[in-house]
Amino acid sequence: MSSKDHTESEIWREDNGKELEQIEIELLLEGIHRFYGYDFRNYAIPSLRRRIWHHVHAEGVQTISALQNKVLHDRECFQRLVYNLSIPVTEMFRDPNLFLTFRQKVVPLLRTYPYIRIWHAGCSTGEEVYSMAILLHEEGLFEKSRIYATDMNSRSLQQAKEGVFDIRRMKQYTKNYMEAGGTRSFSEYYTAKYNSVIFQPFLKKNMIFAEHNLATDRSFNEFNVIFCRNVMIYFNDELRNHVHGLFHESLSHFGILVLGAKESIHFTDYSDSYEALDRVEKIYRKIN
Ligand SMILES: C[S@@+](CC[C@H](N)C(=O)[O-])C[C@H]1O[C@@H](n2cnc3c(N)ncnc32)[C@H](O)[C@@H]1O
C-alpha cells in the first residue's frame, strides 16, 4: 500500500466515523424524544456532542449506540443524561453589571405598573431568581411582583425551591451583589447552617416554580419581563427562533426581554420586534 493509499484510507475511515457518529447521535435523540418526550434534536451540535461523549464514558459504555440502549432501558440513566445535557451552571447576580443596569433602566419602568409578572426561563438551581427577589425587595417592588421560575430539569428546580446554597460561594456572590448595586449587607438575606446557607423564607413568598420545557411546552401567561440567559446559546437557529416566538407571544406590549451576555435578538425572526434598552447588557423592549 502506498503512503497516498494509506492517507486516503485514513480519510475514508475518518469520514465514515463522523457519519456514523452523526447517525448515532440522531438515533439517540430520536429515541429520547419518542420514549421520554424530551426534545434535544435542535440543540447545537458541538456542545451536545461533547456532552454525549462525556456521558458515554461516565456510564462506562463504549459507543453512543450502547448509551442509547442504556438510556432507553434505564430511566435513571436517562435522568443522569438530562442533568448532564442541561448544564446547570449559574451564580447569584451573574454578570453584576446587567443587574445594575436593570435597576437603573428597567426598575423605573416597572414602578409605573400596578403589578409585575417576571418569568425566569431556564432558571437552573435558582440563583438568578433569588437575585431578582432581592433586587425587587430593595427597590420596594417585591410585594406587587410574581416571579415564575421554570426549567426542564426537575433536579435543579427542586434545589431552587429549597433556596439552600453552598456557603463557599457566598464570597463571590457578595462581591457580585455589591457590584450589582446592592444597598444592604448581603448576609442579611441568609442564615448559615453547616456548609450551606438558607435564604430568608420571605424571598420565596412570591416565587412560583414549575417544570417547563422551552422546546416542547407552550406559553402559560403574559409577562412584563422575561429573563432567559445562557440557555438559547445551546440551541440551533431553528429552536432559538421557536423560543423567541414563544417569548414574543408571552410578553406584554413594551415587555422586557433579557438575554445572556453571548446572546442576541439579532439574526432571529423577531429582531424588528424589539428595541435595545441596553445593547451591551442585552436588555430589549418589545415594540411590536
Ligand atoms: C447554563 S444554565 C443558565 C441558568 C441561568 N439562567 C443563568 O444564566 O445563570 C441553563 C439552564 O437552561 C436549562 N434548559 C436547557 N434547555 C432547556 C429547555 N429546553 N427548556 C427549559 N430549560 C432548559 C437547563 O436545564 C439549565 O438549568
TrEMBL record:
A GO BP term, please?
methylation
**Record-annotated CheR-type methyltransferase domain positions:** 13-265
Q: Per the UniProt record, which EC number(s) apply here?
A: 2.1.1.80
Sorted alphabetically, which SUPFAM superfamilies does this protein's record hold?
Answer: Chemotaxis receptor methyltransferase CheR, N-terminal domain (SSF47757), S-adenosyl-L-methionine-dependent methyltransferases (SSF53335)
Any one Pfam family here would be CheR
> Is Methyltransferase there in the keyword field?
yes
Look up keyword Transferase and say if it applies: yes
Q: Which UniProt keywords apply?
A: Methyltransferase, Transferase
Signal peptide region:
none
Which species? Paenibacillus lactis
Q: What is this protein called?
A: Chemotaxis protein methyltransferase CheR
* GO molecular function terms noted in the UniProt entry: protein-glutamate O-methyltransferase activity
UniProt xrefs under SMART domains: MeTrc
